[in-house]
Amino acid sequence: MTTVALAILLDTTTHLVTLPDPDPVQPPGTEGLTTLLGWVKWIGLAVCVLGLIAAGTMMAIQSRRGEGGEHAGKIGMALGGVIIISAATSLVGFFV
How far is the C-alpha of 84 from the C-alpha of 45, rounded, in Å? Predict the structure, then answer.
């Protein structure tokens, strides 16, 4: 009984390993979407850079008053946004 189950399991495993995995191909006529995604990514990164500059400026101004520590969270959030925006295509490819 166990040899039959083992043979069925091995046969199923062999079929699972041989499933095709084609490379993704961009459909014709969607070049505009690719351009739009590039623009959105550029704008998102520009907003993150502006956020970092603003957080750094506020930290520098308030450090004279002794209140500069609470802006570290804002800088962390901006850097997290940069990481997610920059790695968006890799993250989607990983989960798909």
Answer: 10
